[in-house]
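Workshop exercise sheet. Pairs work together: one partner reads the sequence aloud, the other fills in the structure field after running the prediction. Swap roles for the next sheet.
Pair: D.N. / O.F.
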Amino acid sequence: MASKSPRLRHPRPLDAGRFAADIASFELHLAAENKAAATIRIYTEAPRWFAAAHLLPETDKTRWDQVDVRDVQRWMVWLLRHYSETYAYQQYRSLQQFFRWLAAEDEIADPMAGLRAPKVADKPVPFFTSVELSKLEKACQGSTFRHHFSHTWLERGGAEGDLMELNGWSSPQMLQRYGASARGARARRHYDIVMDD
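Structure field:
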């Protein structure tokens, strides 16, 4: 098993085969919305990797409209076993953006519509139905994982707007709430950068 490191990433290059055309269209859509280059890369690499590492070798599916919730669940379980929870969460949010766009663009069912993002207390969660995660959220008071992800994202210099989009937040109050713990670390890091001789 690979080390669970947030720096560990997928092998390159990624060949999404017959799924690549829609990913290229999604990339154009994101560019037209003036998304940052890093956001475009993150959002498009997630479906490309999902197609290259799961759909093509593990299934007989040839179109996005054949993808179902079980495919996404299996992929998320695999990610949680091989990578950090933070990285799996990022992949989940990126796939969610892709499938929302695809469902609106091609009028197909969104395979992630019944899922919620993985939330982690002490260990990865293998399945992500709304009912199961609702119970987990109550047991963990819901915010442990989101705080960790948000803190890590902001502390490493991630953009606040991108964090809001990845977390599905429409309100800046959520950004203030979850980003507060990283403010001191970010201020110290920027002080070192600015004041470095």
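Discussion prompt: Residues 1-8, 121-137 have pLDDT under 50 and may be disordered. What would you look at next?
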